């Protein structure tokens, strides 16, 4: 059976996960959050006292990491060696660590294998940085989601303050800029728009407007 795939790439905070989740629900297919996989590797490194930038040691412990993905009501849960880590990988420290381990080729090879296997066995909306360019080059629809750095920082600031987490807008902006730099300048699979991707700028748009726009781009046969 041929499964259907939508690739959504873009920088941190562009709204990929919120939008991808809504599309998956609407189409009744699964949402694959690939960032969570890099976050899980970072979590394991941090827990074991390994710097996420320490390529040699990260490579050494990679075979100790088993990542499993399970779905419940279209929601992805991610397991690190059988522990559900879906919630604890959402900290700022893990965001930066994920961006660091993601520059290591051996880490990417392992994550990409997992991602391609998921897309072989189900129709997916997959979000990340290299989905349209590398993981699923034959995806049925490719979206490159962007928003200004100011808008991305202010969305993240709102999200954190709503959760009661104290934070500084200027610090968040700096962290987003640092991650953008890491993601676009790395050697392996840097973040860039696939030639055949449609660029959707979410600045000033509501989530629903973006979801509707993407759904309208899905080829008619699906
Ligand atoms: O999407 P999220 O912010 O959770 O991703 C965390 C980090 O993982 C990103 O900053 C990026 O460096 C890395 N990543 C990646 N390739 C992907 C998904 C995420 O390099 N496909």
TrEMBL record:
Enzyme class name: transferase
Location within or outside the cell: Cytoplasm
GO biological process, any: pyrimidine nucleotide metabolic process
UniProt: ATP binding residues: 10-18
EC assignment: 2.7.4.25
Top-level division of the source organism's lineage: Bacteria
Short name of one Pfam family: Cytidylate_kin
GO cellular component, one term: cytosol
Cited PANTHER family: CYTIDYLATE KINASE, CYTIDYLATE KINASE/PANTOATE-BETA-ALANINE LIGASE
Homology family: Belongs to the cytidylate kinase family. Type 1 subfamily.
NCBIfam families on file: cmk
Protein name: Cytidylate kinase
């Amino acid at each position: 059976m041929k499964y259907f795939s939508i690739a959504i790439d873009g920088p941190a905070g562009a709204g990929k996960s919120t939008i991808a989740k809504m599309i998956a629900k609407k189409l009744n297919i699964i949402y694959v959050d690939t960032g969570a996989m890099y976050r899980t590797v970072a979590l394991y490194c941090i827990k074991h006292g390994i710097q996420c930038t320490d390529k040699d040691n990260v490579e050494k412990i990679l075979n100790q990491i088993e990542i499993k993905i399970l779905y419940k009501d279209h929601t992805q849960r991610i397991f690190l060696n059988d522990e559900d880590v879906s919630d604890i990988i959402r900290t700022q420290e893990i965001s930066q660590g994920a961006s660091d381990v993601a520059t290591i080729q051996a880490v990417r090879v392992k994550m990409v294998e997992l991602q391609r296997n998921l897309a072989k066995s189900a129709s997916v909306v997959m979000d990340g940085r290299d989905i349209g360019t590398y993981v699923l080059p034959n995806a049925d629809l490719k979206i490159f989601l962007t928003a200004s750095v100011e808008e991305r920082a202010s969305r993240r600031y709102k999200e954190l303050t709503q959760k009661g987490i104290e934070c500084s807008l200027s610090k968040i902006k700096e962290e987003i800029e640092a991650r953008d730099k890491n993601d676009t300048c790395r050697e392996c699979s840097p973040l860039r728009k696939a030639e055949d991707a449609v660029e959707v700028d979410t600045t000033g748009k509501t989530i629903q407007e973006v979801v509707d726009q993407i759904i309208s781009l899905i080829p008619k046969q699906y």
